[in-house]
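Usage

Read records sequentially. Each one opens with the input sequence:
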Amino acid sequence: MLLNTRRRMLGLLAAAIGTSSLVPLVPRAFAAKTAAKTPECFALQPFGDWKGVATNTQAGARIGQIDFANPDTCDLRGEIQVAETYDAKLVLFGDPEGTPLPKDFLIKPDNRLMAKNEDGTVAVDEPLCGVCTDIRDDKVSIVLPLATGALFRSAKSVEMAVKLGDAKECRFTLNCEDLRKALDWAVERKEALAKSLEDEKCTPPAKGCFLTTACCEVLGLGDDCFELRTLRRYRDEVLIAMPEGKAALAAYYLMAPSILERLPQEERVTLLLSVYARFILPSAVVARLGLYQLAYRLYARMMHELAREYALDEHRPGLPAGR
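and closes with the structure output:
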């Protein structure tokens, strides 16, 4: 049924344009003008549970969803981000029906952050909110102490734990060898991307299971389908030329993989089909008609809804990137 709806919409689009051969997404004069504008450079690469993240200015590694050793007794979700300097941040998301994360609760001294050396000795045992930012009822960002950076630099693995009140510890283990590989790769890619930017050869990442691609794959559509071609061209010829276009793309490439990681597996296909019908196809159609601001708003609304549902930073814009 959804494929039939797609055929009807594309048929109406062809009729509205007046030809079965669709005209270019943007006028040639505008395309020529924007072709000289160089897009921001991005790259992602998995290393075990870690993903190396590189732009032409930054390098780091992250785990979008931590696997806790005791998920049945741990009412938290978490992600971790590590910069090339080994400065790190742990982001925790509370269960709205389980463990709350309001500020007056988080700053209590009996809430602890712990890390152990490989021999089992305790290397870190500090108040959880030594340095906490972005505190909400369902989220907190925790700047990890310098001692964890030293462990990340040298240990094979680090066992960490979060203790909230009377609840059992939420324990997880980080593979530090994979982390170092991810950071080494990201630093090298940052330098290469900066060189690409100088040479005006930078292009957004061509691979990776991002939202538009994931939705189209569920429907059995190919990599050159109307939706992907249209939104990629919108990205490369329109969005990148906007004043905040590069920042929007950077946010999208950081957010989209996390959203996909957090989609419940048992509902993944249904959710992606819904996203396609409500946002992807309409965005592509209106972009094809030249209604660029409407395409922008539709895709941004999709990203904000998904960010809110899957506990990502709502203030980070998620905008059309064609992937």
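Summary fields computed downstream for this record:
- The longest strand covers residues 76-83.
- Residues 18-39, 203-209, 313-323 have pLDDT under 50 and may be disordered.
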